[in-house]
Amino acid sequence: MLTYYSAGESHGRGIFCFLDGFPAGLHVEPEDVNFWLGERQKGYGRGGRQKIERDEVDILSGMRGGYTLGSPILMAVWNRDFENWRDAMGPWEPPRGKGSEKFVQPRPGHADLSGALKYDQDDCRNILERASARETAARVAAGAFCRKLLAEFGSGVAGHTVRIGPVEADTEAIPSAEIHERSMQSDVRCCDPAASKAMIEAIKKAKHDKDTLGGVVEVRAWGMPPGLGSHTQWDRKLDARIARAMMSIQAVKGVEIGIGFRGADRPGSAFHDEIVFNSESAEGLRYRHLSNNAGGTEGGMSTGEEVVVRLAKKPIATLMRPLRTVNMETHEPADAIRERSDTCAVPALAIIAEAALAIALAEAYIERFGGDSVGEMKRNFDGYMARIAER
Ligand code: EPS
């Protein structure tokens, strides 16, 4: 089974990614990973940290001569900012210098309060360093391997911003094949140029008001066969696995598959995707749906239509206009600390969500088609597709 874990603190040595159960024989170049790490760092609304970091992957195990070995892949994305935080974040010496001051005012909207109580810590930095969304660099690195694997089977993923704060884009009709190109032209990764401009204005205003903004991203995947995942058990359902992968991304508060919440007021006749049979289908999938309100999954299995997922991200919780909190030493009311942060990180979420979807789908492919080598997976895949073409 494909397993993915990360380690690392935001201002520590680096962010580390452990990817186990990945098949042997996939050709991967440094740029296949570094391109997406670079894309994650972009986006209007980011703070000063992204001027310091230039994320690149350092492969520590699991590859030889440009190919995966089938053994655990261990990766590092080193933090340049660690040099500025060495005194405060080093593992052995007592913390001193920048960021070492003990603070007990938990910041609203962060992991600080629950983490300080759960792990019995006075210094919320012992919580926030790991809770930080810097961790998403690991997910993007793992996702880069997974999207490369999906491409071997003709499958791809693309994400884009559909809302920032009050501004909603008109992108319902955009073909998935155009999302990547068009969203790359926008500083907020939005395919609608007018909305893109308005989103940038909204972020500027939020920054001026010492506030922050959240939003919504959509990620789509295409080229999957029907039957990934299974209806037979709760933890094998593809949509459940996708939702878990998405919900575990920092600051995500809502996940929708297909028209999801937007379809809840429809009668069944206006929701369900009718089935047609096309014996001439060039794509090899002769059973198709006339619409895709289900977002590519039914009964916990892929339908063969595009997987469509939307994620709602709450606004960044570190505000330059501090929210009210409590000093945990004195129990007196206090202001949350103000420290360097982003105003809006929704555009980065589009890249992170692509990675999370690629990981969830790669896991389902490996489960369905066997995961020791890419060659074995392809033989099994071809056999399955040949059988489906007879039905
Ligand atoms: C983050 C706070 C900011 C973000 C960071 C996530 O970092 P800093 O405290 O160093 O200014 O920039 O995101 C990243 C570093 C990144 O690479 O995405 C937080 O508190 O979650």
What gap, in angstroms, lies between the N and C termini?
Answer: 29 Å
- Radius of gyration, rounded? 22 Å
The small molecules bound here are:
ligand EPS
- The name CATH uses for the topology is Chorismate synthase, AroC fold
Secondary-structure element series:
EEHHEEEEHHHHEEHHEHEEEEEEEEHH
Major sheet: order of its strands? 8-7-9-15-10
Give the CA-based shape.
Answer: globular
Rounded average pLDDT: 95
Just name the CATH architecture: 4-Layer Sandwich
CATH class: Alpha Beta
How would you describe this structure to a colleague?
- The structure is a single chain.
- By secondary structure, the chain is an alpha+beta fold.
- The chain is 33% helix and 19% strand.
- It has one domain: Chorismate synthase, AroC fold.
- It is built from eleven helices and 17 strands.
- The strands form six sheets. It has a five-stranded antiparallel β-sheet with strand order 8-7-9-15-10. A four-stranded antiparallel β-sheet has the order 1-2-6-3, covered by helices on one side.
- Strand 1 and strand 2 form a beta hairpin.
- The two termini are 29 Å apart.
- Ligand EPS binds next to helix 6.
In short:
By secondary structure, the protein is α+β, with helices and mostly antiparallel strands. 33% of the residues lie in helices and 19% in strands. It has a single domain, classed as Chorismate synthase, AroC fold.
